[in-house]
Design brief:
Layout (H helix, E strand, L loop, with lengths): L1 H18 L3 H39 L1 H16 L7 H15 L3 H18 L8 H11 L7 H9 L9 H23 L3
InterPro entries: Gate_dom
Protein name: Spore maturation protein A
Keywords: Membrane, Transmembrane, Transmembrane helix
Length: 191
């Protein structure tokens, strides 16, 4: 469905551009947009390689494991059923820790494993449990200590200080994570 919508938007834009006599402006915009996209991707590629390397060092040095040990007691308090399952808690902790450190590629397998483990203890198999919903919210609104993607985009566009957004990102994602947990806990009482 989304493909049809995008096709219609592009098709109508081209037709309107031709009929209003702005075909030349339209073609210049298409060429400029395509070249800008390629430049951005190349710029991001280098920065993402750098940040992935730094994050891999953090992972290998044990920094993510130390963060996981700090998180585990907190997570046991908010996850009622999954908090009792060691395998589920381990996967949840590693997923959130990897996300906090900007290791989204490493976080994905842990997230899938966490959902599988929570599904095993889920009493209603065709409905997500409260812990599954809470995990999804935390995964989406995870606190970001190093927002590597945004830093990379800012660097690709020649920002004077691409990492200046670290503190605002921590505040914004921390607020989102806390409010997400609070809202989940409130909604769990009614649904």
């Amino acid at each position: 469905m989304i493909n049809i919508i995008w096709f219609l938007i592009l098709f109508l834009g081209i037709i309107i551009g031709i009929f209003t006599g702005k075909a030349e402006i339209l073609s210049k915009a298409v060429i400029l947009g395509a070249s800008s996209a390629v430049e951005l991707v190349i710029g991001l590629l280098g920065m993402m390689c750098l940040w992935c390397g730094i994050m891999k060092i953090a992972e290998k040095s044990g920094l993510t494991d130390k963060l996981a040990k700090v998180l585990r007691p907190i997570l046991k308090l908010i996850f009622k059923e999954a908090g009792k399952n060691q395998s589920a808690m381990s996967s949840i902790t590693m997923n959130l820790t990897a996300n906090m450190m900007g290791l989204s590629n490493a976080a994905t397998p842990f997230g899938i494993k966490a959902m599988e483990e929570m599904q095993k203890i889920n009493k209603v198999k065709d409905t997500a449990s409260n812990d599954m919903a809470l995990f999804l919210v935390l995964n989406a609104a995870c606190i970001q200590f190093l927002p590597t993607t945004v830093i990379s985009i800012r660097a690709a566009y020649n920002s004077r200080n691409p990492a200046i957004i670290i503190l605002p990102a921590i505040i914004a994602t921390g607020t989102a994570a806390i409010l997400g947990v609070v809202y989940c806990k409130i909604l769990q009482r009614y649904f």
